[in-house]
Amino acid sequence: MDRPLEASGLAKRFGPVRAVEGVSLGLDRGQALGLLGPNGAGKSTTLALLTGLRPPDSGRVRIFGHPAGSAAARARMGVTPQAAGFPDQLTPREVLHYAAARRAGLPGVDGVITAFGLERLIDRRMTGFSGGEVRRVALALAFVGQPGLVFLDEPTAGLDSVAQEAFRVVARSYVEGGGAMILTSHHWDEIEAVCDRILMIDQGRPVLEGRLGDLHARMRARRLAFTLPEGLAPPGWLQARKEGGRWQAESDDSDASLRRMVGEGLRFDDLTIEPLALKDIIARIGQENRV
Ligand SMILES: Nc1ncnc2c1ncn2[C@@H]1O[C@H](COP(=O)(O)OP(=O)(O)OP(=O)(O)O)[C@@H](O)[C@H]1O
Ligand SMILES: [Mg+2]
To answer: Which of 194, 182, 191 lies closest to 281, judged by CA?
Structure first.
């Protein structure tokens, strides 16, 4: 069977700017890829090439075996662009039905209304919709019609915390149900919660890619967090710093660090030891590569 997404050798220039250069990626059913990188890295341009919104200067994209931009490809995919705008005089219901009718799957309009909390908004004209309200319609638009592949460009930018959590639930169940997803985000905890692999780009080029599980396994380091009685400070060798009222330190051998803390009689309390978060892993890999 054809893969949801297969792209190779993508490149795109805007005058002197190499927005995308040498990006290749593939997605199977039930996989979610997090595309990350700083502002201007080329994430949105990559999505524009993958979805067929822009033609690449070179490279090739197939969506379920069909060329990007073709009607057959578009019938199998959903998109939430970074900046979505809708005609003011339409209601979300009209927009969603319109999109669902063009997709190969079942309409599923009621499902996305509930999933994204659109009940109160669904029959209102979109004139005056708040930023977060527009965003929720744009998200529903990607998932309506049950496409096998969705592209989400900063899906939760501007959403309140309830809507952000709702998005994570929808995204995970979509992927568990066999959907394929590619999303960009500056919230790395969101990528960790939803994706099983990442591709990091910088100045259009891939700089890091892999399965999150493999990145975690590569890192023996752990994050230690604890409190100390007022006036006490951790020993210098631990290189701890205080964040949010707790002392935080990273250690490549947390067992040894803990034994040494106990041996030195440090009066710590409320200790937790956790694997590094994605942002710490990426910072470490960046440091290693710089050496
Ligand atoms: N239509 C365009 N014309 C000229 N330059 C463009 C155009 N679109 C993108 N660029 C440039 O290409 C580069 C990549 O832009 P892109 O929007 O893909 O970045 P991004 O990774 O999505 O950033 P952000 O995190 O800010 O959304 C930037 O330097 C941008 O200025
Ligand atoms: Mg962008």
So the answer is: 191
